[in-house]
Specification:
With 213 residues, the chain is of the alpha/beta class. It has a single domain, classed as Rossmann fold, CATH 3.40.50.1240. It has 8 helices and 6 strands; from the N terminus they run βααβαβαααβαββα. The protein has a 6-stranded mixed sheet, with helices on both faces. Strand 2, helix 3 and strand 3 form a beta-alpha-beta unit. Helix 2 packs parallel to helix 3, helix 4 packs across helix 5 and helix 6 crosses helix 7. It is globular.
Length: 213
Amino acid sequence: MGLQVDTHLLAIRHGETEWNSQGRFQGHLNSALNREGRAQAEALGEYLAGERFDLLLSSDLGRALQTASAIAMRTGHEIVVEPRLRERRMGIFQGLTPAEVQARYPEEYARFRTHDPDYIIPDGESTRQLFERSVACFTELATRHAGLTLATVTHGGVLAMLYRHARAMPLEAPRDFSLHNTGVNRFRHRLGAWELQSWGNIGHLDVALDDPE
């Protein structure tokens, strides 16, 4: 029987954006980090400078790359761009607030609010499609880089899918976990299975969030 080779994953959400603060659906559109988000990314970079990891990967969307760049500046890693780490494609909802979506697309928004994992937003993705894409991406990366520690900067929706997968939590079940901007979530991949080790570490934000300026 061969030796068990674990791959460790630091799965990180990007810093806060202008649209995060406005409650807008971002999807595949870009919204730059706001002042708070830039401070979060700087604090994250400082925290990860004390962490050993082998590869730094990022979604190709601007908010993730901006966050990954703050890490790379501190750690010296090159950023490996991975488009499969993108947020859920939100189609006709992108760039709008929930109130705006409800006003413009009442029937579609009502379907969306049922949390049916197979409901596909027009021009977008379903939750199940996001789940399959996200888990396949993380599993392929973990297998390809077996034995290494990977840091990935991605999005709340993607992180939620890996959490549900590792915890065997149904896609229909209400979310009972937080998705913090620049939260660091730790997973281990062993023998084809994912194990959640810790979730939602934002200890590095203590200084940034308390800064009065």
